[in-house]
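Follow-up to my earlier ticket, as requested here are the two runs.
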Amino acid sequence: MSWLRNVRNKIASITKKETPDNLWHKCKKCEAMVFLKEYQDNMHICPKCDHHGRIGPDIRFTHIMDENSWERLPFASVKEDPLKFKDQKKYTERLKDARTKTTEQDALINVAGTIESVPCVVGVQDFAFMGGSMGLAVGQAFVDGASRALQDQCPYIIFTAAGGARMQEGILSLMQMPKTTVAISMLREAGLPFIVVLTDPTTGGVTASYAMLGDVQISEPGALIGFAGQRVIENTIREKLPEGFQTAEYLLEHGMIDMVVHRKDLRAQLAHIMGYLMAWKTAA
């Protein structure tokens, strides 16, 4: 049977060479196998079940911003590892790994540009960077984005995606909650819109601060949105919670957000909302 084993090994070798690992994408919801190119061309949305996959800043900016209209804002320098934190690894090593993996400095990236010719500043949290967690760098990036919107007299749009506060920065991470809230107050005093787009997942301290303080609260379909996990809440209140109570659709039904918008419609919807909220400036 050695000849059969040899033939089988050769077939396996040929198949492996002709079908690289990055040829297919497995949907996390329906588990359908989709050609990666088809998935990417469909804005990282499963063509079988319409599940919206997680995407990073560069892809998001490409989807949302006018072509060649946007520029990245410089990333402010903050004190790294202020608590000299170490668990299984040093915090500095975790930062280094995240930067290598994502090629980003930290979890929140801002750009200034236009959406359907409407000037705006857009921030995107990258869940791939330590779960999009909020630390000193994210807090400062948020303030920088709001400051640029104030300077340009335009709306600030934030796409949230986070597991919450960054535990490696302890109380300093929690201090970013009031810090970002003050920046939002400055936008409100100037009459400039602050628009939040909740993406999967948005949880923890981010939900407890700027993620739920928008003048308009939008979400992508199926996004997980909440503060604590379902099991934690059930153990605390000792009651069974409704199925899917932390999904975007459930929050919309119960008045927690204003609208759920498909990714393909989001660009036009944002332009429409900004045009409406900035009408006072055009009239002046």
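Run two:
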Amino acid sequence: MKPLVEAAIVDVCRNTRTLPCRKMVIADLGCSSGPNAVALVSIALETTRNHFLQLQQPPPEVSLLLNDLPYNDFNVVVKSLVVLRQINEPIVVAGVVPGSFYERLLPSGSVHLFCSSNSLHWLSKAPEDLRIKQIPAYDIDENVRHERLPVVAGAYTRQFRKDFTLFLKLRGKELVPDSRMVVSLAGRRSDELVTEITHVWGTTAQILGVMASECAIDKAKFDSLYIPVYAPSLKELREIIQEEGSFSITEMRVHDPASGMDSTLLTPNKIANCMRAALEPIMVQHFELSGEVMDEFARTAEST
């Protein structure tokens, strides 16, 4: 996302209508809490400073805001922000904004750049109609699973469209006119709705299905697990953005995260650990799992 964030910042800085008071607000939505929590805002801050240095002008005052859900570990985030403030000028404000990005977070017309990395494929909730009708998101029986796949995929598609439309509407209100937003999210290459990878978590579901068949986890709880994740196609995103109307599209890219990566790094152990890191909180809460069972999940993932 680095070149996209840099280009967005330059566009904002060049627009005199966007920065009339020489003050800039940059917000990251879904920052998480690890070492990458300040990565995007750091890029934006450095680009802003370099742009005005080249013009031999003083940079604007900058406010950096990091958002995630209330139970995110903001202690780690705040420590990262403190370090960032100490090595950069002229940050005036750096803070956190706890809450869902499917709700209003900031005042109207206050933000110059929104960025969000690897977050917007998380839905506000799993599709309610599947839960009400007790239709499993992933059935162990392959024939039944394929019969239900159009219903399941359609439910997830409608939920994503509803959530992403709301996200765009809210951010459109919070942005300064002529400002920018740069986001990345997990997607799928196919425009076809009914695919095994529609929910991103198909591989995880297969692993849990094996564990359920071996009685390592409860079968009834497996059937009632609805992970709130959806991977849209490029066509879906474009249609939703155009229909909602708050934004115009400057650029859209499809990126393979494995491209340019040393294939030796993609070991079964690393892939299993990535899956565990992303989904363990959900699975532990839903299945009431212990660390030993999650270890079994990782071992099953490696051998699948």
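The only thing I checked on run two: The beta strands are 23-29, 61-68, 91-98, 111-117, 175-184. Let me know what else you need.
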